[in-house]
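Exercise 7. Predict the structure of Adenine/guanine phosphoribosyltransferase from Paenibacillus marchantiophytorum.
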Amino acid sequence: MNNNNISDYCPNKIGRTYSIAGDLELQVNVTSNPYNIPLDQLFAMAARINKKRSFLFVSKVLGKHIPVQPYVSLLSGVSLALMLQQALHGEVAKDLLPLAIQGMTEPLQAEAAYKEIMSHRLSLPQSVAFIGFAETATAIGHAVFQTFGHNGSYIHTTREVIDGLPSIISFSEEHSHAVAHYCYALDADLLTQADLVVLVDDEITTGKTSLNIIRDMQGKFPKKAYYVLALLDWRTEKDQEQFRKLELELDISIHVISLIKGEVEVQGSSESIPRQEHARLQAANQNDSIDFIYVDQLFRHVPPAANERPYLRDSGRFGLTSEDCQQSDQVVTQAAELLKQARKGTTTLCVGTGEFMYLPMRIAAEMGEGVVYQSTTRSPIHCIDREGYAVQVGYPYPAPEDPDVTYFLYNIKEGQYDDLFLFMEREVDHAAMQPLLEILLTRGLKQIHIVMFSPQTTAWKEHATWQTGALGQ
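Solution. The predicted structure, encoded as C-alpha coordinates:
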Protein backbone atom coordinates (compact mmCIF):
# COMPACT_ATOMS: atom_id res chain seq x y z
CA MET A 1 0.00 0.00 0.00
CA ASN A 2 1.42 3.35 -1.06
CA ASN A 3 0.58 6.36 1.08
CA ASN A 4 2.28 8.89 -1.20
CA ASN A 5 3.60 10.84 1.79
CA ILE A 6 0.27 12.42 2.55
CA SER A 7 -1.10 12.67 6.05
CA ASP A 8 -4.69 11.65 6.72
CA TYR A 9 -4.97 14.91 8.62
CA CYS A 10 -4.47 17.00 5.46
CA PRO A 11 -7.77 16.48 3.65
CA ASN A 12 -7.44 19.29 1.12
CA LYS A 13 -4.17 18.09 -0.40
CA ILE A 14 -3.99 15.74 -3.36
CA GLY A 15 -4.51 12.41 -1.85
CA ARG A 16 -3.55 8.86 -1.59
CA THR A 17 -3.09 5.82 -3.80
CA TYR A 18 -4.17 2.37 -2.63
CA SER A 19 -2.53 -0.55 -4.43
CA ILE A 20 -5.28 -3.07 -3.77
CA ALA A 21 -4.33 -6.24 -5.65
CA GLY A 22 -2.90 -7.16 -9.04
CA ASP A 23 -3.04 -4.05 -11.22
CA LEU A 24 -6.05 -2.65 -9.34
CA GLU A 25 -5.31 0.76 -7.81
CA LEU A 26 -7.51 3.43 -6.34
CA GLN A 27 -6.61 7.10 -6.11
CA VAL A 28 -8.47 8.76 -3.24
CA ASN A 29 -8.61 12.56 -3.13
CA VAL A 30 -10.22 13.83 0.07
CA THR A 31 -11.79 17.28 -0.23
CA SER A 32 -13.54 17.48 3.14
CA ASN A 33 -12.62 15.93 6.49
CA PRO A 34 -13.89 18.46 9.01
CA TYR A 35 -13.19 16.30 12.08
CA ASN A 36 -9.69 15.25 10.95
CA ILE A 37 -10.49 11.55 11.10
CA PRO A 38 -7.56 9.38 9.96
CA LEU A 39 -8.69 7.41 6.92
CA ASP A 40 -7.03 4.24 8.22
CA GLN A 41 -9.38 4.31 11.20
CA LEU A 42 -12.43 4.34 8.95
CA PHE A 43 -11.65 1.83 6.21
CA ALA A 44 -9.23 -0.50 4.46
CA MET A 45 -9.37 -1.62 0.83
CA ALA A 46 -10.30 -4.88 -0.87
CA ALA A 47 -11.09 -6.10 -4.37
CA ARG A 48 -14.69 -7.01 -5.16
CA ILE A 49 -15.70 -9.96 -7.29
CA ASN A 50 -18.03 -7.74 -9.29
CA LYS A 51 -17.69 -6.55 -12.89
CA LYS A 52 -19.71 -3.40 -12.17
CA ARG A 53 -17.42 -2.18 -9.38
CA SER A 54 -14.00 -3.68 -8.76
CA PHE A 55 -13.10 -2.16 -5.38
CA LEU A 56 -14.59 -2.05 -1.91
CA PHE A 57 -14.09 0.33 0.99
CA VAL A 58 -14.11 -2.17 3.86
CA SER A 59 -15.35 -0.23 6.85
CA LYS A 60 -13.56 -0.55 10.16
CA VAL A 61 -16.53 0.90 12.06
CA LEU A 62 -19.64 -0.73 10.59
CA GLY A 63 -19.20 -4.24 11.97
CA LYS A 64 -19.72 -6.00 8.66
CA HIS A 65 -16.59 -7.55 7.14
CA ILE A 66 -14.19 -6.61 9.95
CA PRO A 67 -14.91 -7.31 13.65
CA VAL A 68 -15.28 -4.13 15.70
CA GLN A 69 -15.97 -3.07 19.25
CA PRO A 70 -19.79 -2.78 19.04
CA TYR A 71 -19.97 0.65 20.66
CA VAL A 72 -17.65 1.95 17.92
CA SER A 73 -20.14 0.83 15.29
CA LEU A 74 -23.07 2.36 17.16
CA LEU A 75 -21.17 5.64 17.42
CA SER A 76 -20.72 5.78 13.65
CA GLY A 77 -24.49 6.14 13.41
CA VAL A 78 -24.64 8.51 16.37
CA SER A 79 -22.06 10.76 14.69
CA LEU A 80 -24.25 11.09 11.60
CA ALA A 81 -27.29 11.76 13.81
CA LEU A 82 -25.46 14.62 15.53
CA MET A 83 -24.44 16.08 12.17
CA LEU A 84 -28.06 15.88 11.05
CA GLN A 85 -29.24 17.65 14.20
CA GLN A 86 -26.70 20.36 13.55
CA ALA A 87 -28.04 20.80 10.01
CA LEU A 88 -31.69 20.88 11.13
CA HIS A 89 -31.26 22.99 14.27
CA GLY A 90 -28.26 25.06 13.28
CA GLU A 91 -26.49 23.84 16.42
CA VAL A 92 -25.75 20.69 18.38
CA ALA A 93 -25.40 20.00 22.09
CA LYS A 94 -21.99 21.21 23.18
CA ASP A 95 -19.15 18.72 22.85
CA LEU A 96 -21.38 15.79 21.85
CA LEU A 97 -20.19 15.53 18.26
CA PRO A 98 -16.46 15.65 19.14
CA LEU A 99 -17.22 13.08 21.86
CA ALA A 100 -18.87 10.77 19.32
CA ILE A 101 -15.97 11.10 16.88
CA GLN A 102 -13.44 10.45 19.62
CA GLY A 103 -15.29 7.35 20.81
CA MET A 104 -15.65 6.05 17.26
CA THR A 105 -11.91 6.32 16.62
CA GLU A 106 -10.72 5.28 20.11
CA PRO A 107 -12.42 1.99 21.09
CA LEU A 108 -11.44 2.18 24.75
CA GLN A 109 -13.54 5.34 25.07
CA ALA A 110 -16.44 4.18 22.91
CA GLU A 111 -18.75 2.81 25.60
CA ALA A 112 -18.55 5.88 27.83
CA ALA A 113 -19.05 8.20 24.86
CA TYR A 114 -22.08 6.27 23.60
CA LYS A 115 -23.79 6.17 26.99
CA GLU A 116 -23.18 9.87 27.62
CA ILE A 117 -24.64 10.89 24.27
CA MET A 118 -27.61 8.53 24.51
CA SER A 119 -28.51 9.96 27.91
CA HIS A 120 -29.46 13.18 26.09
CA ARG A 121 -31.78 11.60 23.46
CA LEU A 122 -31.75 14.38 20.89
CA SER A 123 -34.84 16.16 19.63
CA LEU A 124 -36.16 16.56 16.09
CA PRO A 125 -37.80 19.85 15.02
CA GLN A 126 -40.25 18.00 12.75
CA SER A 127 -41.51 14.51 12.02
CA VAL A 128 -38.72 12.50 10.36
CA ALA A 129 -38.78 9.08 8.68
CA PHE A 130 -35.35 7.42 8.68
CA ILE A 131 -34.65 4.75 6.05
CA GLY A 132 -31.57 2.52 6.26
CA PHE A 133 -30.27 0.80 3.13
CA ALA A 134 -29.88 -2.98 3.12
CA GLU A 135 -27.82 -4.74 3.79
CA THR A 136 -24.81 -2.89 5.09
CA ALA A 137 -26.55 0.18 6.51
CA THR A 138 -29.43 -1.46 8.37
CA ALA A 139 -27.60 -1.10 11.69
CA ILE A 140 -26.12 2.35 11.15
CA GLY A 141 -29.52 3.63 10.03
CA HIS A 142 -31.13 2.19 13.14
CA ALA A 143 -28.41 3.78 15.28
CA VAL A 144 -29.11 7.18 13.71
CA PHE A 145 -32.83 6.83 14.45
CA GLN A 146 -32.27 5.55 18.00
CA THR A 147 -30.23 8.66 18.84
CA PHE A 148 -33.39 10.79 18.73
CA GLY A 149 -35.91 10.59 21.54
CA HIS A 150 -39.16 11.43 19.78
CA ASN A 151 -40.81 12.52 16.54
CA GLY A 152 -39.04 9.89 14.46
CA SER A 153 -39.69 6.58 12.72
CA TYR A 154 -37.40 4.01 11.16
CA ILE A 155 -37.55 1.32 8.52
CA HIS A 156 -34.85 -0.39 6.53
CA THR A 157 -35.03 -1.69 3.00
CA THR A 158 -34.57 -5.39 2.38
CA ARG A 159 -33.41 -7.71 -0.38
CA GLU A 160 -35.82 -10.38 0.84
CA VAL A 161 -39.13 -11.07 -0.89
CA ILE A 162 -41.70 -11.56 1.86
CA ASP A 163 -44.81 -13.43 0.80
CA GLY A 164 -48.11 -11.88 1.74
CA LEU A 165 -46.84 -8.33 2.24
CA PRO A 166 -46.77 -5.61 -0.44
CA SER A 167 -43.63 -3.54 -0.87
CA ILE A 168 -44.48 0.14 -0.50
CA ILE A 169 -41.16 1.22 -2.06
CA SER A 170 -39.22 -0.61 -4.77
CA PHE A 171 -35.96 0.55 -6.31
CA SER A 172 -32.61 -0.75 -7.50
CA GLU A 173 -28.97 -0.56 -6.41
CA GLU A 174 -27.47 -0.78 -9.86
CA HIS A 175 -23.86 -1.70 -9.02
CA SER A 176 -24.74 -4.32 -6.44
CA HIS A 177 -24.53 -8.09 -6.43
CA ALA A 178 -28.17 -8.02 -5.23
CA VAL A 179 -29.90 -5.24 -7.14
CA ALA A 180 -33.54 -5.11 -5.99
CA HIS A 181 -34.65 -3.38 -2.78
CA TYR A 182 -38.07 -3.68 -1.14
CA CYS A 183 -39.70 -1.96 1.81
CA TYR A 184 -42.42 -3.64 3.91
CA ALA A 185 -43.91 -1.09 6.29
CA LEU A 186 -46.76 -2.50 8.33
CA ASP A 187 -48.05 1.07 8.61
CA ALA A 188 -47.48 3.25 5.54
CA ASP A 189 -48.36 6.31 7.64
CA LEU A 190 -44.76 6.25 8.84
CA LEU A 191 -43.84 7.65 5.44
CA THR A 192 -47.09 9.45 4.62
CA GLN A 193 -47.11 11.59 7.75
CA ALA A 194 -43.38 12.35 7.95
CA ASP A 195 -42.39 15.93 7.14
CA LEU A 196 -38.87 14.89 6.17
CA VAL A 197 -37.18 11.73 4.91
CA VAL A 198 -33.60 10.87 5.90
CA LEU A 199 -31.82 8.13 3.93
CA VAL A 200 -28.87 6.43 5.63
CA ASP A 201 -26.09 4.56 3.83
CA ASP A 202 -22.56 3.63 4.81
CA GLU A 203 -21.04 4.97 1.59
CA ILE A 204 -22.10 6.96 -1.46
CA THR A 205 -20.06 6.24 -4.57
CA THR A 206 -22.22 7.60 -7.40
CA GLY A 207 -25.44 8.29 -5.46
CA LYS A 208 -27.64 6.40 -7.94
CA THR A 209 -29.20 4.29 -5.19
CA SER A 210 -30.34 7.41 -3.33
CA LEU A 211 -31.69 8.98 -6.51
CA ASN A 212 -33.58 5.79 -7.36
CA ILE A 213 -35.37 5.60 -4.01
CA ILE A 214 -36.14 9.33 -3.97
CA ARG A 215 -37.71 9.12 -7.42
CA ASP A 216 -39.86 6.14 -6.36
CA MET A 217 -40.85 7.74 -3.05
CA GLN A 218 -41.74 11.09 -4.56
CA GLY A 219 -44.44 9.42 -6.65
CA LYS A 220 -45.97 7.77 -3.57
CA PHE A 221 -45.04 9.81 -0.48
CA PRO A 222 -44.07 13.25 -1.84
CA LYS A 223 -41.81 15.43 0.31
CA LYS A 224 -40.19 18.80 -0.15
CA ALA A 225 -36.82 17.80 1.29
CA TYR A 226 -34.62 14.74 1.62
CA TYR A 227 -31.40 14.24 3.57
CA VAL A 228 -28.84 11.58 2.70
CA LEU A 229 -26.41 10.56 5.46
CA ALA A 230 -23.28 8.50 4.81
CA LEU A 231 -19.90 7.97 6.41
CA LEU A 232 -18.15 8.36 3.03
CA ASP A 233 -19.21 10.43 0.01
CA TRP A 234 -17.18 9.81 -3.16
CA ARG A 235 -19.47 11.46 -5.74
CA THR A 236 -17.81 13.25 -8.63
CA GLU A 237 -18.98 16.63 -9.88
CA LYS A 238 -20.89 14.79 -12.59
CA ASP A 239 -22.61 12.64 -9.96
CA GLN A 240 -23.53 15.70 -7.91
CA GLU A 241 -25.00 17.29 -11.04
CA GLN A 242 -27.45 14.36 -11.21
CA PHE A 243 -28.66 15.32 -7.73
CA ARG A 244 -29.19 18.92 -8.82
CA LYS A 245 -31.10 17.77 -11.91
CA LEU A 246 -33.45 15.63 -9.83
CA GLU A 247 -34.02 18.53 -7.43
CA LEU A 248 -35.15 20.69 -10.34
CA GLU A 249 -37.20 17.93 -11.95
CA LEU A 250 -39.14 17.06 -8.78
CA ASP A 251 -39.05 20.52 -7.16
CA ILE A 252 -37.38 19.20 -4.02
CA SER A 253 -34.16 19.73 -2.09
CA ILE A 254 -31.62 16.99 -1.41
CA HIS A 255 -28.99 17.53 1.28
CA VAL A 256 -26.01 15.18 1.65
CA ILE A 257 -24.11 14.89 4.94
CA SER A 258 -20.98 12.78 5.40
CA LEU A 259 -17.94 12.45 7.63
CA ILE A 260 -15.56 12.29 4.66
CA LYS A 261 -16.02 13.72 1.18
CA GLY A 262 -13.82 13.33 -1.87
CA GLU A 263 -13.41 11.62 -5.21
CA VAL A 264 -11.90 8.34 -6.35
CA GLU A 265 -10.26 7.24 -9.57
CA VAL A 266 -9.87 3.57 -10.48
CA GLN A 267 -7.04 2.07 -12.48
CA GLY A 268 -6.81 -1.58 -13.45
CA SER A 269 -9.36 -4.30 -12.72
CA SER A 270 -10.13 -7.07 -10.25
CA GLU A 271 -10.99 -9.57 -12.98
CA SER A 272 -7.42 -10.83 -13.32
CA ILE A 273 -7.01 -11.51 -9.59
CA PRO A 274 -7.02 -15.28 -8.97
CA ARG A 275 -9.51 -16.72 -6.51
CA GLN A 276 -7.85 -17.97 -3.34
CA GLU A 277 -9.42 -21.05 -1.82
CA HIS A 278 -9.07 -21.70 1.91
CA ALA A 279 -8.84 -25.31 3.03
CA ARG A 280 -11.29 -26.27 5.74
CA LEU A 281 -10.11 -28.20 8.75
CA GLN A 282 -11.77 -31.39 9.89
CA ALA A 283 -14.33 -30.51 12.54
CA ALA A 284 -14.58 -32.59 15.69
CA ASN A 285 -16.84 -32.91 18.73
CA GLN A 286 -19.75 -31.19 17.02
CA ASN A 287 -22.30 -32.25 19.61
CA ASP A 288 -20.17 -30.91 22.45
CA SER A 289 -19.27 -27.53 20.94
CA ILE A 290 -22.63 -26.14 19.74
CA ASP A 291 -25.61 -25.04 21.77
CA PHE A 292 -28.84 -23.28 20.81
CA ILE A 293 -30.26 -20.42 22.88
CA TYR A 294 -33.78 -19.06 22.32
CA VAL A 295 -34.51 -15.45 23.25
CA ASP A 296 -37.81 -15.19 21.38
CA GLN A 297 -39.82 -14.62 24.56
CA LEU A 298 -38.18 -11.23 25.01
CA PHE A 299 -38.99 -9.78 21.58
CA ARG A 300 -42.05 -8.86 19.55
CA HIS A 301 -42.81 -10.62 16.31
CA VAL A 302 -44.68 -9.72 13.17
CA PRO A 303 -48.19 -11.24 12.90
CA PRO A 304 -49.79 -13.54 11.94
CA ALA A 305 -49.00 -15.37 15.15
CA ALA A 306 -49.70 -18.67 13.39
CA ASN A 307 -46.37 -18.35 11.57
CA GLU A 308 -44.11 -20.65 13.58
CA ARG A 309 -41.01 -18.88 12.23
CA PRO A 310 -42.04 -15.22 12.31
CA TYR A 311 -39.95 -12.16 11.56
CA LEU A 312 -39.01 -9.80 14.37
CA ARG A 313 -41.09 -6.67 14.91
CA ASP A 314 -38.13 -4.99 16.62
CA SER A 315 -35.65 -5.42 13.77
CA GLY A 316 -36.71 -2.28 11.88
CA ARG A 317 -37.60 -4.15 8.68
CA PHE A 318 -41.32 -3.43 9.18
CA GLY A 319 -41.17 0.03 10.72
CA LEU A 320 -40.58 1.42 14.21
CA THR A 321 -41.52 4.63 15.99
CA SER A 322 -39.74 6.57 18.71
CA GLU A 323 -42.18 5.07 21.20
CA ASP A 324 -40.72 1.64 20.44
CA CYS A 325 -37.22 2.66 21.55
CA GLN A 326 -37.66 2.39 25.32
CA GLN A 327 -39.08 -1.12 25.15
CA SER A 328 -36.29 -2.15 22.78
CA ASP A 329 -33.64 -0.87 25.19
CA GLN A 330 -35.09 -2.95 28.02
CA VAL A 331 -35.21 -6.25 26.16
CA VAL A 332 -31.73 -5.73 24.70
CA THR A 333 -30.34 -5.47 28.23
CA GLN A 334 -32.24 -8.58 29.33
CA ALA A 335 -30.98 -10.58 26.35
CA ALA A 336 -27.40 -9.42 26.91
CA GLU A 337 -27.50 -10.48 30.55
CA LEU A 338 -28.75 -13.93 29.57
CA LEU A 339 -26.10 -14.43 26.87
CA LYS A 340 -23.30 -13.10 29.05
CA GLN A 341 -23.81 -16.09 31.32
CA ALA A 342 -23.16 -18.46 28.42
CA ARG A 343 -19.72 -17.04 27.54
CA LYS A 344 -16.91 -19.59 27.80
CA GLY A 345 -13.85 -17.37 27.64
CA THR A 346 -12.45 -13.86 27.56
CA THR A 347 -12.53 -13.29 23.77
CA THR A 348 -15.95 -13.48 22.16
CA LEU A 349 -17.19 -12.78 18.64
CA CYS A 350 -20.86 -11.94 18.06
CA VAL A 351 -22.03 -12.42 14.47
CA GLY A 352 -25.16 -10.88 12.97
CA THR A 353 -26.63 -12.47 9.87
CA GLY A 354 -27.20 -10.51 6.67
CA GLU A 355 -29.57 -7.61 7.27
CA PHE A 356 -30.12 -8.67 10.87
CA MET A 357 -27.43 -6.47 12.37
CA TYR A 358 -28.68 -3.83 14.80
CA LEU A 359 -30.21 -5.92 17.60
CA PRO A 360 -27.25 -8.34 17.66
CA MET A 361 -24.90 -5.35 17.74
CA ARG A 362 -26.76 -3.74 20.63
CA ILE A 363 -26.83 -7.00 22.56
CA ALA A 364 -23.13 -7.62 21.90
CA ALA A 365 -22.32 -4.17 23.27
CA GLU A 366 -23.75 -5.14 26.66
CA MET A 367 -22.21 -8.61 26.95
CA GLY A 368 -19.08 -7.47 28.76
CA GLU A 369 -15.42 -6.89 27.96
CA GLY A 370 -13.61 -8.75 25.22
CA VAL A 371 -16.60 -8.83 22.84
CA VAL A 372 -16.38 -7.77 19.20
CA TYR A 373 -19.05 -7.81 16.53
CA GLN A 374 -19.41 -8.37 12.80
CA SER A 375 -21.97 -9.75 10.34
CA THR A 376 -22.28 -12.16 7.47
CA THR A 377 -22.70 -10.56 4.06
CA ARG A 378 -23.73 -11.16 0.46
CA SER A 379 -20.69 -9.25 -0.82
CA PRO A 380 -18.30 -11.46 -2.83
CA ILE A 381 -14.75 -10.27 -2.11
CA HIS A 382 -11.31 -11.49 -3.15
CA CYS A 383 -9.59 -12.92 -0.05
CA ILE A 384 -5.85 -12.31 0.00
CA ASP A 385 -3.71 -13.37 2.95
CA ARG A 386 -1.49 -10.30 2.94
CA GLU A 387 -0.72 -7.80 5.68
CA GLY A 388 -2.72 -4.61 5.24
CA TYR A 389 -5.32 -6.17 2.94
CA ALA A 390 -8.81 -5.83 4.39
CA VAL A 391 -10.23 -9.32 3.81
CA GLN A 392 -7.66 -12.03 4.40
CA VAL A 393 -9.83 -15.10 4.88
CA GLY A 394 -13.41 -15.89 3.96
CA TYR A 395 -15.88 -18.69 3.35
CA PRO A 396 -18.99 -18.84 1.15
CA TYR A 397 -22.07 -20.82 2.17
CA PRO A 398 -25.70 -21.12 1.03
CA ALA A 399 -27.96 -18.90 3.12
CA PRO A 400 -29.93 -21.01 5.61
CA GLU A 401 -33.06 -19.00 4.77
CA ASP A 402 -32.62 -19.36 1.00
CA PRO A 403 -30.11 -21.85 -0.44
CA ASP A 404 -30.16 -20.03 -3.79
CA VAL A 405 -28.45 -17.03 -2.13
CA THR A 406 -24.75 -17.20 -1.26
CA TYR A 407 -23.48 -15.51 1.89
CA PHE A 408 -19.92 -15.03 3.10
CA LEU A 409 -18.21 -15.00 6.48
CA TYR A 410 -14.94 -13.05 6.50
CA ASN A 411 -11.88 -12.47 8.67
CA ILE A 412 -12.40 -15.17 11.29
CA LYS A 413 -9.11 -16.99 11.67
CA GLU A 414 -8.58 -20.28 13.44
CA GLY A 415 -8.08 -19.92 17.19
CA GLN A 416 -8.87 -16.21 17.21
CA TYR A 417 -11.77 -16.39 19.70
CA ASP A 418 -12.81 -18.51 22.66
CA ASP A 419 -16.47 -18.57 21.68
CA LEU A 420 -18.84 -17.25 19.06
CA PHE A 421 -22.50 -16.19 19.20
CA LEU A 422 -24.37 -16.44 15.90
CA PHE A 423 -27.62 -14.43 15.89
CA MET A 424 -30.46 -15.79 13.75
CA GLU A 425 -33.63 -13.72 13.34
CA ARG A 426 -35.65 -16.77 12.30
CA GLU A 427 -35.31 -20.46 12.92
CA VAL A 428 -34.55 -22.44 9.74
CA ASP A 429 -34.49 -26.09 8.83
CA HIS A 430 -31.74 -27.84 10.78
CA ALA A 431 -30.15 -29.23 7.62
CA ALA A 432 -29.97 -25.73 6.12
CA MET A 433 -27.73 -24.62 9.01
CA GLN A 434 -25.12 -27.32 8.38
CA PRO A 435 -22.93 -25.55 5.76
CA LEU A 436 -22.48 -22.54 8.05
CA LEU A 437 -21.96 -24.67 11.15
CA GLU A 438 -19.31 -26.70 9.35
CA ILE A 439 -17.38 -23.49 8.71
CA LEU A 440 -17.65 -22.37 12.32
CA LEU A 441 -16.50 -25.76 13.57
CA THR A 442 -13.14 -25.23 11.84
CA ARG A 443 -12.38 -22.00 13.67
CA GLY A 444 -10.96 -23.58 16.84
CA LEU A 445 -13.72 -22.25 19.11
CA LYS A 446 -14.40 -23.59 22.60
CA GLN A 447 -18.12 -23.02 22.11
CA ILE A 448 -20.51 -21.98 19.36
CA HIS A 449 -23.80 -20.47 20.51
CA ILE A 450 -26.68 -20.22 18.04
CA VAL A 451 -29.04 -17.51 19.30
CA MET A 452 -32.57 -17.83 17.89
CA PHE A 453 -35.09 -14.96 17.98
CA SER A 454 -38.09 -16.91 16.69
CA PRO A 455 -40.01 -19.52 18.74
CA GLN A 456 -38.62 -23.00 18.95
CA THR A 457 -40.37 -25.53 16.72
CA THR A 458 -40.86 -29.20 17.47
CA ALA A 459 -38.24 -30.22 14.90
CA TRP A 460 -35.55 -28.28 16.80
CA LYS A 461 -36.26 -29.43 20.36
CA GLU A 462 -33.75 -32.29 20.17
CA HIS A 463 -30.99 -29.86 19.09
CA ALA A 464 -31.55 -26.98 21.53
CA THR A 465 -29.86 -27.22 24.91
CA TRP A 466 -31.01 -23.93 26.44
CA GLN A 467 -34.02 -21.66 26.33
CA THR A 468 -34.41 -18.19 27.80
CA GLY A 469 -36.06 -19.35 31.01
CA ALA A 470 -33.32 -21.87 31.74
CA LEU A 471 -30.34 -19.52 31.77
CA GLY A 472 -29.25 -18.41 35.19
CA GLN A 473 -31.47 -20.82 37.09
